[in-house]
Design brief:
Pfam families: HEAT_EZ, TIP120, TPR_CAND1
Region (Disordered): 356-385
Distance between the termini: 53 Å
Structural class: mainly alpha
Domain TATA-binding protein interacting (TIP20): 1085-1247
InterPro entries: ARM-like, ARM-type_fold, CAND1/CAND2, TATA-bd_TIP120
Radius of gyration: 38 Å
Organism: Apteryx owenii (Little spotted kiwi)
Strand content: under 5%
Number of helices: 60
Length: 1276
């Protein structure tokens, strides 16, 4: 180190020594381990500052690089020395020294620690630099000094704007005069600096800036300065659009006025300003992009100025779903802005398009005409004409309007779409690209919404824009088809991009226009001047076209389309080859569709398709993507055209066998073989089955989930379609691998494995005797698992039914029954250690019922056995529960009325001391009734009326009947059930009322048009219990899938939600539960009612003192809050609204109630912490504006200490509360710009300085990091 210093300081040392010494010094400074004492610090700083003046440029550059790491290694006063020297050097007469000092200052600024770290050095150094920079800018002596100073000031403001708070006023005063500088470069940099300043400046300074700009705009001293001021306003809007919203009322009329001035450059800036207002200003700012699932992006424009706003949430498209906030302040000006855009997008005073149109009419069918016209376009040139800039900025502004205003879609198709289509003929390439882009945005907005959130919102209004677009398709094709053969590659790419979007939005819309499009497609594929990207875009469009249209429309053009596509398969560029193989695969499906009869003769085209694909399939030294696509494409060719391949088929299948042995290509090959095996052409796979089957079997033990699943699917298809070609040894090789796959650790793999076994049992029953006991043992273990349900359970049920029908020895009905029920029957015996989960009883019962339905002769004996088990006093509760559940599952599908004692046995079980037995008996009665309504339902209704003590259990049985019976079967009994239920809807027991409500709700679904109005009438009932039952009943009519009741419900749910204002506390609670259910499962029901409902919802979030009482418990007084449950329900509704109706919320009003919740009871605070974390992602700028008020409750929670003598639960409760609060803090810290908030910086510093809080925060960050890693892992 000292040697480096000596040599680099030496004036005698030759240049190369100084360079090497400085380089070594830089390497030393970059090490974390290096520590400098005070003397060394001085020497290093002095030496580096001296080296900045070195005559050798390379030494200077190295010295500057040393400054970065040095900032973190020396004391504050040394950094100030460096900064002072650099600022002085910036004013030097020597240009080289000025430049290197400027770079040095930028380096130092970039290395200063953020203000949030609590470092005082950053603030002090920034103040020193700022004072000198503002002086240098103000002197206006040397333009180059001014430019560098403005650059550095912009850097500081963007990174450390909050730290310079006290200098904001002087910075503003320094920058404003630069807007009138004679040098345009100075003006531009001043605009950039002002843009960074407005991010962190106070409201007063922002108002001062805006007033100055408005005053200067009105003065209009010169066109040049007016341009600058408009550019400045646009720049401010782009950086801090939410702040400019309140000034738009004054700004926009001025800019509209300047649009009419005969100055093209000024007009261009006006439209750029309009675009920035539309995209960024108004009530919300900042476009955030949040990654969601693959191919999905959530776009939000959050923020705001605190006014009450009406926002409009719409999903833009399915290829990239988006949410856009529409600024409120720009709303009144949108028609005016659109009018100007539409006027000036056609503004081309130096060119006459009319002549061109006349020629076009004459030469519509003449290729030569097109070429001549193109040449005349190219010859036209006017260097002085900048009107194209006006058209381009107008097009960009229109795109901004279109992409943010989904609500105006119908208007766009009336006024904007025809104008844009007419401008597809634009002569200037760059302008044309922006017009295409604007129209593509319009198409994306039109893409029908496909999401669970809007699935049930299917009203006819979404179809109107699609119909309007359909009517305009001929005009679009007419405007574009000729351009597909233009020389300009950029124009052609724009055309294909637009047409691709059109085909995605309206599948089938181009069917009548294929003849017009094919020549353009062929031209771009065959034209030697086409770039690689041009060919890829063309192939991509062709693929979308083939996928979205019926095969018949392409049959006349196959002869023309096929040769250029096949030629692209042989292209040396792998991306073109890959895309061409994808298109070829789709073409094969078009040439010979297997899912419908087709008269088109595919045979002549096999000789074109096969050789090119085969060449790529054989090649080993090609890109991985091409290998996979070649395998898939050849798989499709064999699947659809295998009967035309004759002698080529078997050698090709041998190649597949080779690819199956390759680790890289095996997964794709398995999928291709699955496709071939499932072909209705019955391709002969015998030559490769002998070798291929064991290879497939070996894949089942590989640690690659996707490969296991694909292999099981392939084996399943092979067994179904080629069972006569299989040998026992082949099947045994697969069966050996299966036990390891059947496990509760991966239910989906287990399900597919069991489905394969079912296929074996049905198609190849002789192999079943080879099923090892270990496979069955794993299946029985799965049946007894608490995790088994859904698809996996259904697969096992199918397997048992198939297995018992094979009549294989040791796997008959009685053996299977014995294995299924053994753990339950043995659980009652002494020393039994097996205790099954409740879910396992249901699984076993379903399997028992399935076996009994497969062997109907065995069923009566089993039913009698179960009845005896229930009657026997010695039977354990577990045995009785299984017996009742099995009777329930069997009774649902078969008539058990022959069992006369069944009713008595079930009713006696209602008095059992075991709750599980009572519940199972109730379930059994309900399901047995489903199997024979005529016999059991009248009996059940009679019992409900006459047995008050059994009422609750009997009502549960009735619930099963209503839920599981067909509507037609229930209709004769509806009136009796309805009358009975209403007798019990005022029951004092809430549990009973809830069951009655569920019965009423599900019964209403049987005949909604008649029963829903009856429920509505009951709202006027004088009994609060009756009202709460009716409101709860409505909750059970709402499901997340579309239902016939939806339209009726939408018309009257508002009446049921009026109970949010009910005087009874419990009625309001259940009304909130109804609202929450609707918001979660079917938002369309309540979206239009939010303006009326939200005030009632928000009022329930308030703490009501009159509902808080003190209860004496011995010597202690305990506080009871009767309003807590209602408040919790209200906050749960608020959270649900974030996910489903965010667009309809006034986010500032919403945040007011979140703030209250942060100071409420433990349960509510836990909920609001989660809400705050979610809000940090959804609308970060709105949260930023309320940061000061939101931080204090978080700080209070994180700092709370539990009293020393408290019970363990109190400590655990407080720890969980702190963790939840810290998660909210971690979410807040992910908001961009949050570090510029002084209150957040202070809280961050407090967290770091407190060991307990720091440790907690660290663990939260680790948890979130591990969670995101897990989510992003490849599940294969």
């Amino acid at each position: 180190m000292h040697l480096c210093l000596y040599i680099s300081q030496s004036t005698v040392a030759v240049c190369c020594f100084r360079f090497m010494a400085t380089n070594d010094l830089m390497m030393e400074l970059q090490k974390d381990s290096i520590k400098l004492d005070e003397d060394s610090e001085k020497k290093v700083v002095k030496m580096l500052l001296k080296l900045l003046e070195d005559k050798n440029g390379e030494v200077q550059n190295l010295a500057v690089k040393c400054l970065g790491p040095l900032v973190g290694k020396v004391k504050e006063y040394q950094v100030e020395t460096i900064v002072d020297t650099l600022c002085t050097n910036m004013l030097s007469d020597k240009e080289q020294l000025r430049d290197i000092s400027s770079i040095g200052l930028k380096t130092v600024i970039s290395e200063l620690p953020p203000a949030s770290t609590g470092s005082t050095m950053t603030a002090n150094v920034c103040k020193k630099i700022t004072a000198q920079l503002t002086g240098a800018i103000g002197k206006q002596e040397d333009v180059s000094v001014q430019l560098e100073a403005l650059d550095i000031l912009s850097d500081m403001l963007s990174r450390l704007g909050g730290t310079l708070y006290s200098f904001h006023s002087s910075i503003l005063n320094c920058l404003l005069p630069q807007l009138t500088s004679p040098r345009l470069a100075v003006r531009k940099r001043a605009i950039i600096a002002l843009g960074h300043l407005v991010l962190t400046c106070s409201g007063n300074i922002f108002s001062e800036l805006m007033e100055h700009l408005l005053a200067e705009l009105k003065r209009n001293e010169s066109t040049s300065t007016t341009r600058t001021y408009i550019q400045c306003i646009a720049g401010i809007s782009r950086q801090a659009g939410h702040r400019i919203g309140e000034h738009l009322e004054k700004i926009i009329p001025l800019i509209v006025q300047y649009c009419n001035v005969e100055d093209d450059e000024l007009r261009e800036y006006c439209f750029q300003a309009f675009e920035s207002f539309v995209r960024r200003s108004g009530s919300f700012s900042c476009l955030w992009r949040i990654p969601q699932q693959e191919g999905t992006v959530l776009l939000l424009v959050p923020g705001g100025n605190g006014r009450k706003v009406a926002q409009a949430l719409e999903l833009l498209s399915c290829s990239s779903p988006a949410i856009i906030w529409c600024p409120k302040e720009i709303d009144p000006h949108i028609p005016n802005v659109m009018g100007l855009c539409l006027k000036y997008i056609t503004f081309d005073p130096n060119y006459n398009y009319d002549n061109e149109e006349e020629e076009e009419e004459e030469m519509m069918e003449t290729e030569n005409g097109e070429d001549e016209e193109q040449e005349s376009d190219d010859e036209y040139s006017d260097d002085d004409d900048i009107s194209w800039k006006v058209r381009r900025s107008a097009a960009k502004c229109l795109e901004a309007v279109v992409s943010t205003r989904h609500d105006l879609l119908q208007d766009f198709y009336k006024t904007l779409s025809p104008v844009l289509i007419s401008r597809f003929k634009e002569r200037e390439e760059n302008v044309k690209a922006d017009i295409f882009s604007a129209y593509t945005s319009l198409l994306k907005q039109t893409l029908p919404i496909q999401s669970w959130l809007h699935a049930s919102d299917a009203t006819g209004k979404d179809d109107v824009p699609l119909t309007m677009l359909q009517n305009q398709v001929p005009n679009i094709v007419k405007a574009l088809h000729k351009q597909l053969k233009e020389k300009s590659i950029k124009s052609r790419q724009g055309c294909f991009s637009l047409l691709t979007e059109l085909a995605n939005v309206l599948p089938g819309c181009l069917a009548d226009h294929i003849p017009a499009l094919v020549p353009g497609i062929v031209f771009s594929l065959a034209d030697k001047s086409s770039s690689s990207n041009m060919r890829i875009d063309t192939l991509s469009f062709l693929h979308v076209l083939l996928c979205n249209h019926q095969p018949e429309v392409f049959h006349p053009h196959i002869k023309t389309l096929l040769p250029p596509v096949v030629a692209c398969i042989g292209d040396p560029f792998y991306k073109i080859t890959s895309e061409a193989l994808l298109v070829t695969q789709q073409l094969v499906k078009v040439i010979r569709p297997l899912d419908k009869s087709c008269t088109f003769d595919a045979k002549p085209y096999v000789k074109d398709l096969f050789p090119g694909t085969l060449k790529r399939l054989k090649a080993a030294d090609i890109d991985q993507e091409v290998k996979e696509r070649a395998i898939s494409c050849m798989g499709q060719i064999i699947c659809n055209l295998g009967d035309h391949l004759s002698t080529d088929l078997q050698p090709t299948l041998k190649i597949f066998l080779e690819r199956l042995k390759n680790e890289i290509t095996r997964l794709t090959t398995v999928k291709a073989l699955t496709l071939i095996a499932s072909s209705p052409l019955k391709i002969d796979l015998r030559p490769i089955l002998g070798e291929g089957f064991p290879i497939l079997a070996s894949f089942l033990r590989k640690n690659q989930r996707a490969l296991k699943l694909s292999t099981l699917t392939a084996l399943d298809i092979l067994v179904k379609n080629y069972s006569d070609s299989l040998k026992p040894a082949m099947v045994e090789s697969v069966l050996t691998e299966l036990p390891a796959l059947i496990s509760e650790n991966d239910m989906h793999v287990s399900q597919v494995a069991v489905m394969f076994l079912t296929t074996l049992a049905k198609v190849y029953p002789s192999s079943i005797s080879k099923i090892s006991s270990s496979i069955l043992a794993e299946i029985f273990q799965l049946v007894h698992s608490p995790l088994l349900q859904g698809g996996a359970l259904n697969a096992i049920i199918d397997f048992f039914q198939a297995l018992v029908l094979t009549k294989t020895a040791a796997m008959g009905y009685s053996e299977l029954m014995k294995h299924l029920t053994a753990p339950i029957y043995s659980s009652g015996s002494a020393g039994a250690s097996v205790t099954l989960h409740k879910q396992a009883y249901y699984s076993v019962a379903k399997c028992v019922a399935a076996l009994s339905s497969a062997c109907p002769k065995e069923a009566p004996g089993v039913v009698n056995q179960f009845i005896q088990d229930v009657k026997t006093p010695k039977s354990s509760s577990a045995v009785k529960v299984l017996a009742f559940l099995s009777l329930a599952e069997m009774g649902r599908t078969m008539n058990l009325s022959a069992q006369r004692e069944l009713k008595t046995v079930i009713l006696e079980a209602f008095t059992s001391p075991s709750e599980e037995v009572k519940s199972a008996a109730s379930y059994a009665l309900g399901n047995v009734s489903v199997g024979n309504l005529k016999e059991y339902l009248p009996f059940m209704l009679k019992e409900i009326g006459s047995q008050p003590k059994r009422q609750y259990l009997l009502l549960h049985s009735l619930k099963e009947v209503i839920s599981s019976s067909l509507a037609d079967g229930l209709k004769p009994y509806v009136e009796d059930i309805w009358a009975l239920l209403f007798k019990h809807c005022e029951c004092t027991e809430e549990g009973t009322r809830n069951v009655v409500a569920e019965c009423l709700g599900k019964l209403t679904l049987v005949n909604p048009s008649e029963l829903l109005p009856r429920l509505k009438k009951q709202l006027s009932s004088g009994s609060p219990h009756a009202r709460s039952t009716v409101v709860t009943a409505i909750k059970f009519t709402i499901a997340d899938q579309p239902q016939p009741i939806d339209a009726l419900l939408k018309g009257c749910i508002g009446d049921f939600l009026k109970t949010l204002q009910d005087p009874d506390l419990n009625v309001r609670r259940v009304a909130l539960a109804l609202f929450n259910s609707a918001a979660h499962n079917k938002p369309s029901l309540i979206r239009d009612l939010l303006d009326a409902v939200l005030p009632s919802l928000y009022s329930e979030t308030k703490v009501r003192r009159e509902l808080i009482r003190e209860v004496e418990m011995g010597p202690f007084k305990h506080t009871v809050d009767d309003g807590l449950d209602v408040r919790k329900a209200a906050f749960e509704c608020m959270y649900t609204l974030l996910e489903s109706c965010l667009d309809r919320l006034d986010i500032y009003e919403y945040l007011n109630h979140v703030e209250d919740g942060l100071k409420d009871h433990y349960d509510i605070r836990m909920l609001t912490f989660i809400m705050l974390a979610r809000l940090s992602t959804l609308c970060p700028n709105a949260v930023l504006q309320r940061l000061e008020r939101l931080i204090e409750p978080l700080r209070a929670t994180c700092s709370t200490k539990v009293k020393a003598g408290s019970v363990k639960q109190e400590f655990e409760k407080q720890d969980e509360l702190k963790r939840s609060a810290m998660r909210a803090v971690a979410a807040l810290l992910t908001i961009p710009e949050v570090e510029k908030s002084p209150v957040m910086a202070e809280f961050s510093s407090q967290i770091r300085s407190n060991p307990e809080m720091a440790s907690l925060f660290e663990s939260i960050q680790k948890d979130s990091a591990s969670l995101s890693t897990t989510e992003s892992m490849d599940m294969s």
